[in-house]
DNA sequence: CATAAAAGTGAGTGATTACTCACTTTTATT
DNA sequence: AATAAAAGTGAGTAATCACTCACTTTTATG
């Protein structure tokens, strides 16, 4: 019926019911913010692309910034979604993942699919984080409160098992994240037109990471 | 006398003589573009911060975009400066660097100082590359023509010496660059307020990289 | 010192901006 | 079917935008 289940999923608003026009507005805003940036995109352009009157935008979002936040906030949460799941750490400790490599593989694959699916919205989040300190602070807060602590437990768990080098956990976390994020940024942002063999390149990246981190 | 040698160095305009007011304009533009972004910064704001009349900006730069390019182009070249030096590859082959690790160390240290010194201008380059396809194309062109080929020769050299894993050179280049860039981005953009021990963290990063890439 | 070129100025301009509001249309509720 | 609430509209508005231009000041050159 509607090819925009992804918008529902991303914005996590399955319970609320957004009208067709509201979805048009959000989709147009995501696309144009991703292409030209928030500041360089006018509300009249968004209205035109969405096929609505300019006043309709302000009926639903008090300001242009509110429209940006309606896109950015859910994307921010989805970016770290695996770590927000309550049973996530328990899964790791109860031998859902026997080795750090399996854990990394699962996260990598999962985030690869996420970036592939929601690329435009993710672009908007990362681009505008540089200009809006409130968004950057929200990101840092969520990372510290919900991602860092859990990640640290997991790293220490595998260090005790003798799988990982005895570096400070924050260093291992940083190297893990920048290695994965480095691949995704290169693949989807910097060189999206290069003929990648994704499976193979991800495999090489994981081997590199595990060699680099092993005890 | 003047504490702005860095501006001369960055913009690589030692021969031309820029007036005091021109330097004020460039400095103000770099700072404001870095903070708020190009599109969100008005020429009247730049003039105010630079202490000049708005017309003075347009006396030197035909359009606002020209002012952006006057900042971005030299920064783009400086970003890959080590690879642009003619004798760079020869240095590597003639045992200036006996091991890949020494080469990586030299590049890492060099680019660390570069980012530390010119951070605002580098922010502008990377932020606006996302919105201006002409800038992105320039970057890709320079990378392919001046960086990639030389880097590839160096990697193959150390692969033949048996120091590096026999992965495709482009994969080794990617992993090397994203590991270094990942540290610099985390250190200077994402978490600039975290109390880093730069020396130690760079050392760990190099060990990680070499372990990950060794044959 | 004379003269011209270059640098600097700021009021002015038409276009565009985010946003408002009185009004119409659609949807939900009884 | 009646009524109210919600959604949608588009002309209108004050502010701001990048940029121009006639003019003044500074600098370089013989």
From TrEMBL, chains A, B:
Residues 42-61 bind DNA. One of its GO terms (biological process) is regulation of DNA-templated transcription. GO terms for molecular function: DNA binding. Gene3D superfamilies: Tetracycline Repressor, domain 2 (1.10.357.10). Residues 19-79 form the HTH tetR-type domain. It holds the Pfam family TetR_N. Keywords: DNA-binding. Coiled coil: none annotated. SUPFAM superfamilies: Homeodomain-like, Tetracyclin repressor-like, C-terminal domain. InterPro entries: Homeodomain-like_sf, HTH-type_TetR-like_transc_reg, HTH_TetR, Tet_transcr_reg_TetR-rel_C_sf. This is AcrR family transcriptional regulator. It comes from Anoxybacillus mongoliensis.
